[in-house]
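QA checklist item 7 of 12: single-chain prediction sanity check.
[x] sequence parsed
[x] length recorded as 141
[x] structure emitted
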Amino acid sequence: MKWFYYVILLMVIVGCTGEKDRTEYINPLDSEPGVVAAKEWLKLIDSEEFGTSWDQASLLVKDTVTRDEWIMTMNSLTKQYAMRVDRKTDGVTWLTVLPGAPESDYCEVRFFSEMDGREVHETITMQKADEEWLVAGYFIR
């Protein structure tokens, strides 16, 4: 019977000193509709579906750059920042006015990324159009 108590004691000790919960922190901003849409759009960029990424952009992008120019630019960017290791939401700013753009609902989503061992900051400006969040700008530095 003593062995039973020793086993229970051992289980309690192991349970109290075992590994900590390794659940990653979940950023509450990641559930915001504009952020969700930005992350979905970034999946197109990550999988080099540049034409589709332009197709799913707002008129602000389409009025600024042609589809072919967009594809060339994105191909160039992916050569500079070839391999993405990690991306985390760094912050969101909600706006109704952008310089040179019509009044609308916008959100600027900032990501901290690691690409090829380099720290990179990606900023995506999202515009709400017909109840859908569309990309209005993409910047990487």
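[x] summary fact logged: Residues 2-17 form the longest helix (16 residues).
[ ] second reviewer sign-off
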